[in-house]
Structures are given as C-alpha cells and as structure tokens.
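FW: tagging you since you asked about this chain on Friday. Here's the raw sequence from the shared folder, copied in full. Didn't touch anything.
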Amino acid sequence: MKIKLIENWREAHKFLSVQLAALMTLISFAYDYLPAVQQYLPEGWVKWIASAIILARVIKQKNLQDAQDGSGQ
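HL: got it, structure written out here
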C-alpha cells in the first residue's frame, strides 16, 4: 500500500491541527526537561491539547486556496 499525501501538503503548517500537534510536542519536551514548566502545567495536560487537536480536525477551517488569493469565505 502506497502512502498518498493530501493535495496541499506543503501548506500543512497552516492547519490548526498541525500547529496544535507541534505545540503539544514542544510543550512535552519542555515538560520533561525543564522542571519549572512542570509547576505551571497540570499532570493531565496532554489530554486537553489532544482534545483540541481532535476538535481542530473536525471544525471547518478556511480553505487555504481562498486564503492565498485573498478571497476568503
């Protein structure tokens, strides 16, 4: 089975779900290596960011093509 990318994969950094996943990754590294961060984040913080990622995938986001040509929705 060959993996196929979405048509606009080069624009993926603009997707809210991708941005939230990157944020979760960065915070996860900071949480593990910087004890000061552990004071500010509750122990179950991952489930809240993961829930936000799921929500970001199901809500309708502005079409990236429309955003590029400035027409919007």
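FW: The chain has four helices and no strands.
HL: agreed, and The chain has a mean pLDDT of 79.
FW: great, closing this out.
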